[in-house]
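SAMPLE LOG
Freezer: B-3
Tube label: C17
Construct: single chain, 184 aa
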Amino acid sequence: MFLIVSVLLGVAIGYATGGRLSHLARLRLRATWLVLLALLVQLLIFPLFTDRPLLPYATTSLHLSSYALVFLFLALNWRQGALLLTGLGAVLNLIVIAANRGYMPASPTALARAGKAQAAERLVAEGVYGNVRAMGEGTRLDVLGDWLYLPHGVPLATAFSLGDLLIGLGLVGLVVWGMRARGG
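STRUCTURE (predicted):
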C-alpha cells in the first residue's frame, strides 16, 4: 500500500510541476516483468486476502529470490537516477529480511497507530502475520523494520520501514521525472 501512496504522490507532484501523465510512456525501463514476477512470488507466499498463503513452502528462499528479481531489474535500469534511491531502500529491506529469516520485523504499535488493529493483534498473538514478524528480543536490526507509520485516517495508512521510505521516495522521483515534458 505504501508504494501506491508513493506513485499517487508522484503523480500529484508531477501534475503540480507541469508534468503530464502521458509522458510516463516515454520512460524506457527494461524488463519490468521482473518486478511483476517478484510481486507475484510475494503474493503466492504471503497471504493478502486470506489467512493462508497460496504457496506455504520455501517462504524464506522464495522471498529472498523475489528480491533477487528486483535487484536484477534495478541493475538493468541503473541509469534511471531515481531508481538508485529505490535500490538503496531495497538493499536495506533485504538486509533486515535476511537477518530475520525471510520476514520483516514489524512493530504492533506502529500497525495499530496506522489503523491496522486486527493485523497488530494477530501479530502479537501469533508472532508472524503475512510477511512480518513481531519486533522483540528475537528479531534483529529492528531499526530497519516496520516501525514508521502513516497515522490512521491517512488514505492507505500502514506501518513501513526506512527502506520502504527510500523506495517510496525513489518512486515519487521517478514518476515526477517521467512526467516532465522532454523533447524527443
